[in-house]
Amino acid sequence: MNEPKKQSESDSAARREAIDVSDFVYAATGARVRRLTMPDGSHWFPAVDVCKELGHTNSRQALSDHVPESHREILETVTGAYGLSIPAGREWRRDLNIISLQGLILLVSACTKPACAPFKQWVAEVIETVQREGAYALEEAEVQPTEPGAPVAYAMPEQVAEAIVRLEAHNLQLDEELASGQRDSIAVQKEMLAVQRETLAVQRATVAVHQAMVRAMERIADRLDALVLTRPAPGGRLTASPTTESVLADWRQRLSVTEDVWTVAVVIAPILVEKGELREPLESIAARTGLTVRHVNACLRLLRMHACIRSQGGTDDGAPVYVLNQG
Question: What are the transmembrane regions (predicted)?
Fold first, then answer.
């Protein structure tokens, strides 16, 4: 709270205050508001602060309706009269509207805020007492200062004291509710964090399972690439797709291969493996092997007898069709 005043004059002003101005304003408005205290002991308050706490939505209108011009001023005018500079920070502006303590009391009197009711009742009691008895005096406090020359201490009026007690109790309740809300919020945040951790653990486990499945599929794909499955062999076993080398090796085991037979076998084996069948005319095979058509036909008959190949009919032009015998 900014109070620009000289120390000696401040002490003098303090001695003239029977009730602490901060407590007085607190009881009047129900809130702690900014205050400037001048060297002569006069107090000024930002009008916007007071109107906000009292529920006046239009501060300019509230000042115009309830506060005479003699009790409202511009901040620069008031401080300039004492040769003081504008207070720093807290939105103290040169053109800030400020009101005196009397102006504040007038705004409180026009306020319907329940928290202001005890103060307004006390003001009414003061006016009535003055009208009836010609004066109003505060009771002296039970405990007085012991220092020599110390001013008399006065007891705070009952209505003002009760208002402050109620306000403090209300503030304590609000603080407790705020603290409780913060505790609940922290508890909820902890629960959310725990759920997030569990979710993250599940996601990590899911990713691990997915990665394991991908690796398994890759291994299966690799095996399928290395082993192309064909029709089941006798007994239900799956056999690998034949290659030229495996076919020729099998034929060597099935019969005693003569030079002529081997010559024909070397020519027809790649065709049977690649195309699945042999549709070459005998003349074409003879031309590629250098054998006669009769010798080629004899070699094919021998291969057929030893179950190396089997006949699959013929083409439209009469050429025989052979396929591998993988039974």
Answer: none
Cα(322)–Cα(266) distance, rounded to whole angstroms?
15
Contacts of 271-278 spanning 24+ positions with Cβ under 8 A: 272/247, 272/309, 272/322, 272/323, 272/324, 273/242, 273/243, 273/244, 273/247, 273/324, 276/323, 276/324, 277/312, 277/321, 277/322, 277/323, 278/309, 278/321, 278/322, 278/323
State in words which class domain 239-324 has.
Answer: mainly alpha
pLDDT, average across residues 64-91: 90
**Three-state SS sequence of 147-209:** CCCCCCCECCCHHHHHHHHHHHHHHHHHHHHHHHHHHHHHHHHHHHHHHHHHHHHHHHHHHHH
pLDDT of amino acid 5: 44
**CB atoms near residue 264 (< 10 Å):** 24
The DSSP H or E segment spanning 98 is: strand 97-100
**Amino acid 75: pLDDT:** 93
pLDDT of residue 1: 41
**Spans of all domains in the chain:** 7-156, 239-324
* Average pLDDT, rounded, for the chain: 81
In the block, residue with structure tokens 């409780």: 180
Does residue 229 surpass a pLDDT of 70? no
Angstrom distance (rounded) from CA 288 to CA 176 = 105
Which residues, in sequence order, are CB contacts of 47 under 8 Å at separation 6+? 59, 62, 63, 67, 72, 97, 98, 99, 103
Helix (H) or strand (E) holding 127: helix 117-133
Element (H, E) at 10: helix 7-16
47-54 helix and 101-109 helix, angle to the nearest 10 degrees = 20
